[in-house]
């Protein structure tokens, strides 16, 4: 029972039945252990209407060890590091079980987007917003960043271009 | 051989012989003097060429210092005239001196002291915001006349000339507008006011609509500013300025009439309104 | 007064167990081990590995019977309740369902029809149901996946003892039987080891003996509190049950921890640097002056400067008063420029000196203790044999020598920790106005000094005097004749002179051992009770103090001789309690009546002495056999009259 066998089985299962329309998992052509996940922001959350990309690396000891998942798309969320995309999720660390699949992991990430846990924040500012009970501020920031950085489902993205400026050159560094 | 060439050669020979006679005939000191003068002229020429080159690239230490001094004077005039009746000249002097230190002025202050034309305004803004790529500002008190969240329930009024300044800013940097409101009505009010002033949109000189952010608490606003990491933050609430003092490279406090300023710092600038800072 | 009753209980206990004569292996101390001075002893036992297993089995059986559950479940329940059977009963019967849920004990689910294929939830292959394993929750996985899961968990440490079903939302506990069934022998052994270790580690009443190579555990037979408790393992090492450091009564655990950290911390180095070095004005590296001249040159940056005022040397030399003075420094000092800095330096120097004072003594006593330990072992192995030949007494009679060594070891340990106590108790700067503190410090140091003096004496006698004696015996005529078979003539050994010398030495040593022990007992008690209370009483009642010192001596003789006068019987419980109660009762009485009562007590003393055949010195408590002598043989204290200062 190697990681590849199990991953192949999962791939077969995913191709067979498109169970979740909010999650799309695509393996890398050259390496079955590298996956790209595309998740749609959950309804009723400020991420609604946007698509976020996840980078998934499957270790050799899978499924006995958890896959390494991080956000490729930058996202404003208390449990996601803004710059590196690292995710603080218990099932990816201590509560991992070999019965989890990649799809289940993505579902857990989606659940995390809907229900952030401000008590163990990787993004302190987002955590502070939630702890101060400022849902308005949190939502508007999350929505703003999603609009700037995440793609829209139809494929037309308004990912920002660098600001046209004649004299001063400044970078779009968000 | 053409006759022209002949003439030329003759002329040259004549010139050469006359020169030789001159050189052999004159005393040695004169030759030395001539050499020295020629060398001097040569060096002066090189120096002028270098100056010209520097001027072309845009920085000139002498001229930058001169413009900075002029800018300082202008700032001092503005500050002292507005708060002449208060006993705060001393903390303001270092404040504005430091401010100019951060906001490097590259163009001569001549542009800043020009008349209130749009070109002059843009120039002034560009001059003072060189090096700053992100600007955040809190709408109440800075862009709007209302200062407290509860005042936004009934309606919002833009401050005069604030819209133009923000428009000029938006041309040179990423501008984010934050507003602390109480509920959706407040949100709508602010958004309306800004839209009426034609500040929101995708065109040049406008703030993109999704960059208008709202929050309900002061701590929330502070967190948002910290997340955005601007080079300059403009606010009318002293508490926000105090909380952000340690983290921001530059802060601008728009002082209300009767309230005391927050703790002074090298990165806090104080003014009565945006217009004061960015206009002559 | 409530304090009294506590002490009473413990004193009773300690009195009974003072010198145990039973050979009962249950108790952790037998006559061979060092006599423990700590008064507030609690009962404990030492368990070997076998005994641990037995204990664990006992607890398991008990729980299994009472709760009617299987062994695997019992293990889980016990682990959850820290192996406390009482707690198990309480929690179980209070809310069985809640406890079962928390631990993961689910009711056995029906397996259903055997002959069918299911897919394993981990590898997604299909297997016959009968070939798959499952926890009681009946979530089946194939054997290979179970093996991987269990092996990974075992490699992860003792947490595997709480292993749950692999299915994410199922919290059913995986029974030990399943774990052992699917794992290979190596991992199985590890699992068993974790299981056994959990009995000690999760249990509040059991602690491993910290000595390297010792597999024993110590069990406390009472409620474990947060106080220091010294226990001795069968392997010989003593340690504190609470903090696992070496035995450190009378000092409490926090002080010990602080002291150990301080000894190893960098802070003392920094303090030394601050006190003894100055930074180079140019490169700021600390420089120590090693010669007399004030002209310093930094070895790293080659900068030359004056030590006193730290200015560059160029502007110095002859102009500022020569190479050994510095006018600039003097004038600046007069102005007060250096005040803050030199004050800081002064502070650092003083505190460093103070720390060194205590630390040196602590380290010296520690070393002396190790030496004493090895000397004791050596005496046991070699010297006793030799000695028994010389004095015609069997080695069993020579135990008093070993006792003396044991006493030395124990007293060294106590003395060492009193220095640590002193360092923290009497802080860096005691303002002179705080006379209470100063009094306490004086009191403490006096007692410490007394105890130390007697310890040194005891150490000297048992070490040097004994060796000298043996040398003397060797040199005496008649013993140098060695028979062809190697035996030595021992007729000299029974000679009356030899015997007299020997018995005198024996008495001296025994008496000295006892005296030292009493002093240390007193010291330990004082430190534990707190110096404040005792001092208050002592300062009020100087006569009562002199009084009370007689009392314990009289009482212990009463115990030894078996008779007691009525005046003493009322306070016959324990030495120090009598002292205290006597003090407290005296505190209410008139001072005149005090002296009157004191006199009558002295009369009672002489009666007692006449009966017993010896009198006990009031200062050093040694037993003087000569009833007619008026001064003590050990400390030359006057038999009657006020106790002279030492």
UniProtKB/TrEMBL annotation, chain A:
Keywords (A to Z) from UniProt: ATP-binding, Nucleotide-binding, Peroxisome biogenesis, Transferase, Ubl conjugation pathway
One Pfam family of this chain: UQ_con
Gene3D superfamilies: Ubiquitin Conjugating Enzyme (3.10.110.10)
Recorded superkingdom: Eukaryota
SMART domains named among the record's database cross-references: UBCc
UniProt keyword Ribonucleoprotein, yes or no: no
Protein's name in the database: E2 ubiquitin-conjugating enzyme
Residue ranges constituting the UBC core domain according to the UniProt record: 2-151
Molecular-function GO terms, alphabetical: ATP binding; ubiquitin conjugating enzyme activity
A single GO BP: peroxisome organization
Enzyme Commission designation: 2.3.2.23
Keyword ATP-binding recorded: yes
InterPro entries: Ub_conjugating_enzyme (IPR050113), UBC (IPR000608), UBQ-conjugating_AS (IPR023313), UBQ-conjugating_enzyme/RWD (IPR016135)
Similarity remark: Belongs to the ubiquitin-conjugating enzyme family.
Catalytic residues (positions): 88
Automatic annotation (TrEMBL), chain B:
One protein family per Pfam: HAD_Pex22
InterPro entries per the UniProt record, alphabetical: PEX22
Protein name, entry field: Uncharacterized protein
Entry keyword set: Membrane, Transmembrane, Transmembrane helix
GO biological process, one term: peroxisome organization
Key word Membrane present: yes
Top-rank taxon: Eukaryota
PANTHER family cross-referenced by the UniProt entry: PEROXISOME BIOGENESIS PROTEIN 22
Residues passing through the membrane, by range: 30-47
UniProtKB/TrEMBL annotation, chain C:
Catalytic activity: [E2 ubiquitin-conjugating enzyme]-S-ubiquitinyl-L-cysteine + [acceptor protein]-L-lysine = [E2 ubiquitin-conjugating enzyme]-L-cysteine + [acceptor protein]-N(6)-ubiquitinyl-L-lysine
UniProt keyword list: Metal-binding, Repeat, Transferase, Ubl conjugation pathway, Zinc, Zinc-finger
Alphabetized InterPro entries for the sequence: Ariadne, ARIH1-like_UBL, E3_UB_ligase_RBR, IBR_dom, TRIAD_supradom, Znf_C3HC4_RING-type, Znf_RING, Znf_RING/FYVE/PHD
Biased composition (Acidic residues): 1-27
Chain intervals for the UniProt region annotation (Disordered): 1-34, 546-589
RING-type domain segment(s): 116-330, 120-167
Keyword Nucleotidyltransferase among record annotations: no
Domain of life: Eukaryota
Name of the featured protein: RBR-type E3 ubiquitin transferase
């Amino acid at each position: 029972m190697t990681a590849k066998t199990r991953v192949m089985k999962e791939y077969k299962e995913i191709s067979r039945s498109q169970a979740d329309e909010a999650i799309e998992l695509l393996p890398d052509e050259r390496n079955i252990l590298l996956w790209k996940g595309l998740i749609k922001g959950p309804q009723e959350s400020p991420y609604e209407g946007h698509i976020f990309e996840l980078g998934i690396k499957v270790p050799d000891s899978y499924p006995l060890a958890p896959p390494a998942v991080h956000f490729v798309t930058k996202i404003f969320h208390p449990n996601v590091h803004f710059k590196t995309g690292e995710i603080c999720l218990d099932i990816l660390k201590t509560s991992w079980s070999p019965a989890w699949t990649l799809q289940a992991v993505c579902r857990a990430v989606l659940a995390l987007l809907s229900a952030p846990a401000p008590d163990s924040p990787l993004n302190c500012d987002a955590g502070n917003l939630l702890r101060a009970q400022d849902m308005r501020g949190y939502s508007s920031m999350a929505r703003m960043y999603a609009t700037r950085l995440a793609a829209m489902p139809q494929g037309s993205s308004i990912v920002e271009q660098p600001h046209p400026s004649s004299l001063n050159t400044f970078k779009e560094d968000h | 051989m053409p006759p022209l060439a002949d003439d030329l050669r003759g002329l040259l020979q004549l010139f050469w012989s006359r020169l030789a006679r001159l050189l052999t005939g004159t005393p040695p000191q004169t030759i030395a003097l001539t050499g020295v003068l020629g060398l001097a002229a040569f060096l002066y020429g090189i120096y002028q060429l270098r100056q010209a080159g520097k001027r072309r690239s845009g920085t000139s230490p002498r001229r930058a210092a001169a413009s900075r001094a002029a800018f300082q004077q202008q700032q001092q005039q503005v500050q002292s005239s507005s708060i002449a009746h208060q006993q705060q000249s001393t903390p303001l002097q270092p404040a504005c001196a430091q401010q100019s230190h951060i906001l490097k002025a590259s163009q001569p202050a001549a542009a800043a002291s020009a008349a209130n034309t749009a070109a002059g305004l843009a120039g002034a803004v560009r001059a003072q915001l060189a090096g700053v790529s992100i600007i955040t500002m809190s709408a109440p008190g800075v862009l709007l006349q209302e200062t407290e969240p509860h005042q936004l329930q009934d309606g919002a009024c833009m401050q005069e000339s604030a819209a133009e300044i923000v428009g000029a800013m938006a041309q040179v940097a990423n501008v984010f507008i934050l507003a602390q409101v109480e509920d959706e009505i407040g949100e709508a009010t602010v958004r309306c006011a800004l839209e009426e002033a034609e500040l929101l949109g995708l065109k040049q000189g406008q703030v993109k609509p999704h960059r208008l952010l709202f929050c309900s608490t002061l701590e929330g606003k502070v967190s948002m500013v910290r997340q955005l990491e601007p080079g300059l933050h403009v606010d009318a609430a002293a508490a926000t300025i105090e909380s952000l003092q340690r983290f921001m490279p530059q802060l601008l406090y728009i002082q209300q009439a009767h309230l005391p300023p927050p703790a002074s710092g090298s990165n806090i600038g104080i003014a009565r309104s945006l217009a004061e800072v960015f206009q002559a | 007064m409530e304090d009294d009753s506590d002490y009473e209980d413990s004193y009773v206990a300690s009195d009974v167990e003072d010198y145990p004569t039973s050979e009962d292996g249950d108790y952790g101390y037998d006559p061979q081990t060092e006599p423990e001075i700590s008064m507030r002893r609690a009962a404990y036992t030492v368990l070997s590995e076998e005994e641990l297993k037995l204990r664990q089995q006992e607890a398991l059986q008990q729980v299994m019977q009472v709760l009617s559950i299987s062994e695997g479940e019992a293990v889980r329940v016990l682990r959850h309740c820290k192996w406390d059977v009482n707690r198990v009963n309480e929690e179980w019967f209070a809310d069985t369902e809640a406890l079962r849920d928390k631990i993961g004990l689910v009711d056995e689910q029906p397996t259903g029809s055997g002959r069918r294929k299911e897919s394993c939830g981990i590898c997604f292959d299909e297997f016959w149901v009968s070939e798959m394993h499952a926890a009681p929750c009946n979530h089946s996985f194939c054997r290979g996946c179970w093996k991987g899961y269990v092996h990974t968990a075992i490699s992860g440490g003792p947490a595997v003892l709480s292993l749950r079903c692999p299915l994410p939302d199922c919290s059913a506990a995986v029974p030990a039987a399943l774990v052992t069934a699917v794992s290979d022998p190596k991992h199985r052994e590890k699992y068993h080891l974790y299981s056994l270790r959990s009995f000690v580690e999760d249990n509040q009443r059991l602690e491993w003996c910290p000595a390297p190579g010792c597999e024993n555990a110590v069990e406390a037979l009472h409620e474990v509190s947060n106080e220091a408790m010294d226990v001795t393992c069968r392997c010989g090492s003593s340690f504190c049950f609470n903090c696992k450091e070496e035995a450190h009564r009378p000092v409490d655990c926090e002080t010990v921890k602080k002291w150990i950290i301080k000894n190893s911390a960098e802070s003392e180095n920094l303090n030394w640097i601050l006190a003894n070095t100055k930074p180079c004005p140019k490169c700021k590296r600390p420089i120590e002056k090693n010669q007399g001249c004030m002209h310093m040159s930094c070895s790293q940056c080659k900068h030359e400067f004056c030590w006193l005022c730290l200015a560059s040397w160029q502007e110095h030399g002859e102009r500022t008063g020569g190479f050994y003075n510095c006018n600039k420094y003097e004038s600046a000092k007069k102005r007060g420029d250096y005040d803050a800095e030199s004050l800081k330096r002064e502070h650092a120097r003083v505190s460093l000196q103070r720390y060194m004072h205590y630390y040196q003594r602590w380290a010296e006593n520690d070393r002396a203790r190790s030496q004493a330990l090895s000397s004791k072992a050596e005496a046991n192995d070699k010297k006793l044999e030799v000695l028994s030949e010389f004095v015609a007494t069997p080695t069993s009679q020579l135990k008093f020598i070993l006792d003396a060594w044991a006493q030395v070891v124990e007293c060294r340990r106590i003395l060492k920790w009193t220095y640590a106590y002193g360092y923290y108790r009497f802080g860096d700067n005691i303002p002179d106005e705080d006379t209470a503190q100063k009094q306490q410090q004086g009191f403490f140091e006096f007692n410490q000094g007394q105890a130390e003096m007697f310890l040194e004496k005891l150490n000297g006698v048992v070490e040097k005097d004994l060796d000298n004696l043996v040398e003397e015996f060797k040199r005496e005529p008649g013993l140098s004749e060695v028979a062809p078979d190697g035996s030595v003539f021992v007729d000299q050994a029974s000679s009356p002179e030899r015997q007299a010398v020997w018995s005198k030495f024996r008495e001296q040593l025994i008496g000295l051992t006892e005296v030292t022990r009493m002093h240390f007992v007193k010291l330990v008690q004082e430190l534990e009770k707190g110096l404040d209370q005792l001092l208050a009483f002592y300062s009020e009642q100087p006569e009562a103090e002199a009084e009370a010192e007689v009392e314990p001596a009289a009482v212990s003789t009463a115990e030894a001789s078996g008779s007691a006068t009525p005046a003493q019987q009322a306070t016959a419980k324990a030495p120090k309690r009598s002292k205290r109660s006597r003090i407290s009762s005296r505190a209410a009485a008139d001072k005149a009546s005090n002296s009157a009562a004191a006199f009558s007590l002295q009369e009672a003393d002489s009666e007692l002495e006449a009966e017993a055949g010896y009198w006990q010195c009031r200062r050093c408590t040694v037993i003087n056999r000569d009833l007619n002598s008026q001064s003590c043989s050990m400390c030359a204290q006057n038999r009657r009259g006020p106790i002279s200062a030492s």
